[in-house]
Sequence to fold (344 residues):
Amino acid sequence: MENMLRREFLATSLAAPLAVAAPAGVKLGVDLFSLRTQGWTAFEFLDYCSKQGATTVHFSEIRFLGSLEDDHARKVGEHARKLGIDLEIGMRSICPTSTAFDPKAGTAEEQLTKVLRAAQIAGSKLVRAFLGTMADRKTPGGIEARIEDAVKVLRNVRSRAQDMGIRIAIENHAGDMQARELKMLIEGAGKDVVGACFDSGNPCWVLEDPHLTLETLSPYILTSHIRDSYLWNDDNGTQVNWTRMGEGNVDIGSLLKRFIELCPGKSMSLEVIVMGPRAYPWRKPEFWDGYRNVPAADFARFLNIAAKGQPQPVRPPVPKEQAAAREREDFEASMRWTRTFLGV
Fold:
């Protein structure tokens, strides 16, 4: 029954005409984490994203690609090219001491090398990866030690990436690094091979203004994840909601315009995650154990955004069987808003 419903949905959705193409100079794409519960194959993802007008499809995790086998990667790349879509392939943590790293899949170097090969075969010019999450800020040595460990891995695969002609885009991910910290990682690993995957939603998870993140990382940005956020202050600190595009208060429109100015030709892939609020109780002294190196001036910019917000209601959850439909609704509403804002 589930497979039948999925086929019926795809047949209906994919028959819908493509409304418009993205404006000249803008590569509007989809990070497949926006559609993480759909259960589709790589080919179904590509077909759906094509009908939504995407010019880039960002396979941010191996599970969305389905397999790293050479033949599969080749077929996915061929299908993307038939649809006129640029592929970007990614993976998860490459830091062996991160709380997010999976040692069962092999060493960090082994995992990264496998994904680099799949990217080369599929036709992706980059591999996206990340260090970890906010939990790593409170590990022994703090985020600085985790950055050192990630840099070692990246240096170890540097020559392989160069030989393949593929660059590695490290994301500011899930509250792990502020922009200046990711900049330090990139420069330590070698900016000719390593760059940034700019995520506009994650700065708010590490007490940072997304506009500051963009300005700091712009010389290094290879690709991006675009998401809106809504912040407000309360008695304990700040609450952060991730929202549909256009429903936040971080001035996402100005950020899009500035991204186009600073990063011409780079993909803007929507990563729509509607969730929250997530509490940042910075008024409590123990909170600062993972954030003692945060510059006061940068923190003030974060607070100024939240000062403009008002408490928001928690969006009621939907039954599990309706989660995939809501996910599509959130993504499609965000794509429509983005196209309208960009003047399509």
In short: The domain at 24-229+244-273+332-341 is CATH 3.20.20.150 (TIM Barrel).
